[in-house]
Amino acid sequence: MAYEVVMPQMGADMKEGTLIRWLKNEGDEVTRGEAIAEIETDKANIEIEAFEGGVFRKTLAQPGDVVAVGQTIAVIGAADEDISMYEAGKAPEPAMAGAARPAAAAAPAKEATPAVEAAPRGDGHVRASPVARRIAEEKGIDLSRVSGTGPEGRITREDVESFLQTRAAAPEKPEKPPESPREAAPVAMSRMRQAIARRMAQSKREAPHYYVTVVVEMTEAQRLRSQLNDTLGETAHVSVNDLLVKASAKALQRYPIFNTWFIDGEVRRQEAQNVCIAIALDEGLIAPAVLDCGHKSIVEIAQASRSLAERAKSGSLKPEEYSGGTFTVSNLGMYGIEELIAIIQPPQTAILGVGRVSPRPVARDGVVEVAEVMTLALSGDHRVTDGAQGAQFLAEIKRLLEAPVDLLV
After folding, report:
1. Which of 126, 149, 178, 395 minimizes the number of CB atoms within 10 Å of its CB?
2. What global pTM score does this model have?
């Protein structure tokens, strides 16, 4: 039975995506789970996978096409199967009886995190892939000076790297700086910043936030982290954030009401603890998920977190890492911030804000001593939980960090 590949929805506000390239040709064999195409959204470049195996029979969209979410872009089926209804170059209306559209790809993803901009058509901006745009910003390249070889003149990573090589061989003459305008021009918002603005405004508008904070003594947690890193050597490096992710996952198992999505007036509990970690890119903030943290060890979480950060910077995250998060840890401690009150990522119902670990005076048995201390702040959705529940949940995270041996079991 023929299987229709559709443009997936990688976020509640995604309406369309751009087909960048096919990874399979018509007539190729395809196995379930194999990457078949690369698409571009206002979040990032994403590879989509086949949800059924068979022969890649027909493409219904071409590289560069902007395709609406849910529209059929290809057909997979048996080699001798009749797909004459698709020969006109588009899916029939209504869709072929029995055609299996993959639920995971066609159904709206519950949450997506903002990623890199791809310039829209006809607005005076050049078209460039997220990776190409990132490299250009890092190297100070004006993309309008780069020739694109991708679909519709889209600038690829290879185009930027070729431009860099050419510039290195023949340095450009410095251009005369433009005169300062009399009136400052508005700052253009990238599609990424627009996505952040929409999602955060939605969260503050719709979700009544409440906040609870706690001070955690991190002396034992730091000692455990040092022991793990000494033992692991070069194989892995455990960070404070990895301990926080593991503690959050275990607390979510005990208090599953915080491992939920709030959608259309309903609270939907999630089985896996997919903990998002906030990653700062030059273009803005994204928060992909470390999947199934409840069944991962601290070391496995450390390895997964490092991979997540590297792939976030290269624009090669998986769709489920964007859309499957159930809880978020946002840590600004590395910037010297003492306390962070974060905004919930819809449709999630809570987020943990983390400050830096620093030496502070603490009282023990009437004696003031110096200890390694950190402030945690939980932001909760009052439609789903109350302050008392938030306090219990946060107290469990505190307990796990102050007695970190429990994180190992």
Report:
1. 178
2. 0.65
Residue by residue, DSSP assigns 254-277 as: HSGGGSEEEETTEEEE-SS--EEE
Query: Which residues are known catalytic residues?
Result: 382, 386
In this structure, the strands spanning 16-22 and 327-331 are unpaired
Contact call for residues 378 and 389 (beta carbons, < 8 A): no
* List of E strands, 180-272: 209-217, 260-263, 266-269
Rounded CA-CA distance 77/2 in Å is 4
246 with 294, same domain? yes
| CB contact burial 339-352 (16+ within 10 A = b; e otherwise) | bbebbbbbbbbbbb
The closest of 350, 358, 359, 338 to 387, measured between CA atoms, is 350
Give the residue numbers spanning the domain of 65. 3-106
**Nearest of 408, 154, 194 to residue 300 by alpha carbon:** 408
d(C-alpha 188, C-alpha 194), whole Å = 10
Beta strand 327-331 with 358-364 is unpaired
Rg (CA), the chain: 24
Confirm if 296 and 304 have CB atoms less than 8 A apart.
yes
Q: Does 16 fall in a domain?
A: yes
Q: Report the b/e string of 309-321 with b at 16+ CB within 10 A.
A: eebbbebebbbeb
Cα 177 to the center of its chain, rounded Å: 37
pLDDT digits over 173-214, tens only? Answer: 555 566 666 667 787 777 778 888 888 999 999 999 999 999
Structurally, the chain folds into a number of domains equal to: 3
Spatial distance between the Cα atoms of 11 and 164, rounded to a whole number of angstroms: 34
State pLDDT tens for residues 20-66. 889 999 899 999 888 899 887 766 678 888 888 899 999 999 998 88
Q: How far apart are CA 74 and CA 72, in angstroms?
A: 6
C-alpha–C-alpha distance, residues 277 and 52, integer Å: 31
Euclidean distance between the first and final Cα of the chain, in Å?
Answer: 46
